[in-house]
């Protein structure tokens, strides 16, 4: 394969990864909106669309392994393929957690809700979406220094987790009828926190792609 053709193949990998990232971003945005607005139809849409995310990952994995087997890339070319292979797995996990939130939305029946906690979850979801979006932006730009800054935003997500858990626990003490909703709140914020962790993983892969160094942020 000519070098120009090989570079085209790598560019296709990048583009497919970014398209997958945008699909996951949409999933996160919709699943949080569905949960806080109690929209089961939107939640079901998120679940149905998970197949798109899975399909992207399968195609990216197949193409990445094909390039490694047939082209035997070295140096930065190899880092490109490994980055896409690993980071696409992180995106797929984000999609799985978005689906789990959607399922929690559908499972909630008519139990007592805690408005204050749901507003905090809405804010947490917004910042998780922003973190994932920033992660995709640095993937496109290949800015390793910016990757450190973006990864640090995960601390804000962790803070949300602690504050919401505390607020929900206190609300349940005051109103035991909300205990079932509280269980779902704890699950949802755990899923959002994990999405933040996977976004941070992708920042690590961007740094690896640009520098060849494996770091833990």
TrEMBL record:
GO cellular component annotations of the record: cytoplasm
Subcellular location: Cytoplasm
Coiled-coil intervals: 107-134
Keyword Cytoplasm part of the UniProt annotation: yes
Primary localisation category: cytoplasm
UniProt domain PhoU: residue ranges: 20-104, 121-206
Pfam families, sorted: PhoU
Gene3D superfamilies to which the protein is assigned, alphabetical: Phosphate transport system protein phou homolog 2, domain 2
UniProt family annotation: Belongs to the PhoU family.
PANTHER family given in the database record: PHOSPHATE-SPECIFIC TRANSPORT SYSTEM ACCESSORY PROTEIN PHOU
Role, per record: Plays a role in the regulation of phosphate uptake.
Subunit structure: Homodimer.
Record's protein name: Phosphate-specific transport system accessory protein PhoU
Organism in which the protein naturally occurs: Streptococcus massiliensis
